[in-house]
Amino acid sequence: MKREGMTFEKAMSRLDEIVKALEKEGAPLDESLKLFGEGAELIAYCNKALETAQLKIEELFPEEEHLTNGKADGSDKTAAR
Questions:
Q1: How does DSSP assign 8-52, residue by residue?
Q2: Fewest CB within 10 angstroms: 7, 21, 23, 53, which?
Q3: pTM listed for this prediction
């Protein structure tokens, strides 16, 4: 997904707006589906941004597992201990 000028913070703000709009009663189904789809895209964008940030931290501090508290793929390094 390409979002020109999108930042993590802007995506999270838009997600908040979408959630509030979807929580309102009486919204037309087609509008709700459109918002839901946009929200799903924004979640994917945010997850990718967080994964990228976590990988950068792991590269900068490879021996500091406590900084990331798990791998970027969501698995927990401490779970196997």
A1: HHHHHHHHHHHHHHHHSTT--HHHHHHHHHHHHHHHHHHHHHHHH
A2: 23
A3: 0.73
Predicted pLDDT of residue 75: 57
C-beta of residue 41 within 8 angstroms of C-beta of residue 1: yes
Terminal-residue alpha carbon distance, the chain: 37
Strand stretches in the chain, DSSP E: none
Query: Is 19:39 a contact under the CB 8 Å cutoff?
Result: yes
Contacts of 38 (CB under 8 A, 6+ apart): 14, 18
Q: Which amino acid is at 77?
A: K
